[in-house]
Amino acid sequence: xxxxxxxxxxxxxxxxxxxxxxxxxxxxxxxxxxxxxxxxxxxxxxxxxxxxxxxxxxxxxxxxxxxxxxxxxxxxxxxxxxxxxxxxxxxxxxxxxxxxxxxxxxxxxxxxxxxxxxxxxxxxxxxxxxxxxxxxxxxxxxxxxxxxxxxxxxxxxxxxxxxxxxxxxxxxxxxxxxxxxxxxxxxxxxxxxxxxxxxxx
Length: 201
Fold this sequence. Notes:
Elements lengths: L1 H14 L23 H15 L3 H16 L2 H16 L2 H16 L2 H15 L3 H15 L3 H16 L2 H21 L16
Helix pairs in contact: 1-4, 1-5, 1-6
């Protein structure tokens, strides 16, 4: 669930990139309305024009899709996307790089998997605040894991997703039994070495 939320947040951050203006006219064609812009707005428009002309056809298509998606958002959704973009810009470079990696993985997912993750994110948004806080704390713990630990956890999560309800119930029982038997096997020593160690059989 934590992974789903991470990807959902990354997808929302991606909305901020959709604020570009509509595509400019072809090279050499006059641009209408530049005279009505302030010097700062005109400079930004000219920078966008240069960026557009330097794009590949695939990049232009993605920019158009982002723009169409941006136009379809409600004012509240646009405000949230701008706030997310502002928060993103204030993150440390390592955190921004991690989010961009998540976002690239999101873009590579099949559409049905994206829809599944979007539904999970919507369910997350409807949770009570204390439950969302618990999930956020779990996510932060996940981020503190080493790459090897994350990979192992991701594999376990994928395996869990493919289990039948009966297999999941069996796995829960095994975990419960392990937790119950572990304290009887090994008891922690005190720092001075005087506490109990392995329990005698």
